[in-house]
Amino acid sequence: MHLGLKIKIARVGKGLTQEQLAEKIDKTRPLISSIEQSGKVNHYTLKKICKVLNLDINTLENSSAEPQEYYNVKDQNKLQDQLNQMSLELSYLKNLVESQKDLITSLKGQIILLQKGK
């Protein structure tokens, strides 16, 4: 896995957007995008990124670590909590859609009855 992908995984694991990371290191979002895509970054910028993402620069440069190794347990738990919350919200939305469908069907029936009564 190249350096840019490792940075992206660490950034996402910290819950940061490219824009937020760029602001924290006084760079631009397009530069962060370029780094993540190409894996090419100068040492000075890499040091700043590692500081923000709480990564060891030597480990990052020399490691062939798998993506999950860049998340700490706290970050994984936070991501799991967010996933659980989103699943719950999705369930609520599905129920709301079904309720709306039932309401529309009922209203259509009432309109038909009113039209027949005229």
Can you describe what's shown?
The longest helix has 45 residues, at 73-117. The protein is 76% helix and 0% strand. The model has no long low-confidence stretch (mean pLDDT 86). With 118 residues, it is an all-alpha fold. It has two domains: 3-70, lambda repressor-like DNA-binding domains (434 Repressor (Amino-terminal Domain), Orthogonal Bundle), CATH 1.10.260; 72-118. The relative contact order is 0.11. It contains six helices and no strands.
- Largest sheet features: none
Counting DSSP H or I runs of 4 or more residues, the number of helices is 6
Fraction in helix? over 70%
CATH superfamily of the largest domain: lambda repressor-like DNA-binding domains
Structural class: mainly alpha
- The total tally of domains equals 2
Radius of gyration: 24 Å
What would a concise description of this structure say?
With 118 residues, the protein is an all-alpha fold. It is 76% helix and 0% strand.
Write the layout of secondary structure elements.
Layout: H1 3-13, H2 18-24, H3 29-38, H4 43-53, H5 57-62, H6 73-117
Helix pairs in contact: 1-3, 2-3
